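Lab meeting, action items carried over

1. Structure of the two-component assembly. Owner: GW. Status: complete.
Input record:
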Amino acid sequence: QVQLVESGGGVVQPGRSLRLSCAASGFTFSGYGMHWVRQAPGTGLEWVAGLWYDGNNKYYADSVKGRFTISRDNSKNTLYLQMNSLRAEDTAVYYCVRDQRRIPVGATFGYWGQGILVSVSS
Amino acid sequence: QSVLTQPPSASGTPGQRVTISCSGSNSNIGGNTINWYQQLPETAPKLLIYNNNQRPSGVPDRFSGSKSGTSASLAISGLQSEDEADYYCAAWDDRLIGVVFGGGTKLTVL
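Predicted assembly:
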């Protein structure tokens, strides 16, 4: 069965960096677009970034553009999110999400990880 | 301020039919398909409706979706206590070149 397991979260000071990883299994990772979606405490869902099945095209929310980088290693079945210049408002649970398509331009999030907490605080 | 607009709350009694609306614009709902997600308390969201009105396998046919112009709706018939959750609409936005979500609707089963 499809499994998405996030790691790398924790507490970090404002302005510092953190890298999230998502280990995928149970499906052909290289055949699907992938995303990161976050949820700040007590609030709704916010899409963060997405990329094509081959990693060649990437999309970002305005709130993270220029600070976050999404990438993937299809040889390791792993998705990444490099987060730089972190701010208090980046505090959230971050979900690794598999799209239903190779080219993820339909917001069709078929599978979600359990989520990992990132807390930005001094 | 979410790009897609949903009512913050909805409620109904067991057995009733409830609808949740989602309003957008030509760059998102008007030009792309809408998807709905259910988030039960303390769990990750789950795809409930995709491509406006399609149900993934395992989703009961009590759940249905529709779209007209720049608005969409999720209908839940035969309401059950286990339907108490947060519901989100989402779509691709051609102007923002990304995914946009509604603010979410908290459904209470009275």
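2. GW to write a short summary for the group page. Key points so far: DSSP finds no helices and eleven strands in chain A. The interface with chain B takes residues 35, 37, 44-47, 50, 59-62, 95, 100, 105-110, 112-115 of chain A (CB under 8 Å).
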